[in-house]
Design brief:
Helices cover 71% and strands 9% of the residues. By secondary structure, the chain is mainly alpha-helical. The chain has one domain.
Length: 175
């Protein structure tokens, strides 16, 4: 399935694409956050507001206590890495690659909308009681663990869904 030549090709593609995405994504991130926030706004509690200011996602409102900025790149890294994984994959034609990109991109975008709403609800909960920093830190810690694992799980699922069937059907094609 993945011999030395294909593995080196994949690695080189991935490094180049990651560099390109790191250069291009900051130009796209503000727009992406804007669309994300518009959709997530409808899922938040009534007295919590969210807005996009460039790469920042900012929560505000009576239940949040004060302005709480959140770096949008914390959400984006998984989307960027999964895009690089799909674009760098060897042996994947243009149309299937496009389908995978659109499918996973749409699914991740929907997860981002839900995640921003959940973070807003979590912040509202954290400030509902005594509004302690420990409650807010707990919400951000849980959020960080969640977003640390989700891209790895989705990327791993994609690798299994794409490469495992090919490994079973062509065991003798090792180059």
């Amino acid at each position: 399935m993945l011999g030395t030549t294909r593995l080196v090709t994949f690695a080189l593609r991935a490094v180049v694409l990651l560099a390109v995405m790191a250069i291009v994504w900051p130009a796209v991130a503000g727009w992406y956050n804007g669309v994300l926030v518009v959709l997530a706004r409808n899922l938040l509690p009534g007295d919590v507001s969210v807005q996009a200011i460039g790469q920042l996602i900012v929560f505000d409102g009576a239940r949040v206590g004060s302005v709480v900025p959140f770096q949008g790149y914390a959400l984006h890294y998984g989307l960027v890495l999964m895009g690089v994984l799909i674009l760098a994959a060897v042996g994947l034609g243009f149309v299937p690659r496009l389908k995978w990109l659109l499918g996973l991109g749409s699914a991740v975008f929907a997860l981002h909308v839900i995640a921003v709403a959940l973070l807003g609800w979590g912040l509202a909960w954290a400030f509902a009681g005594d509004g302690s920093a420990a409650s807010r830190d707990l919400v951000f810690s849980m959020y960080a663990v969640f977003w640390g694992l989700v891209p790895a799980v989705i990327g791993g699922w994609w690798c299994l869904a794409y490469w495992l069937p090919r490994a079973r059907t062509r065991p003798d094609s090792r180059t």
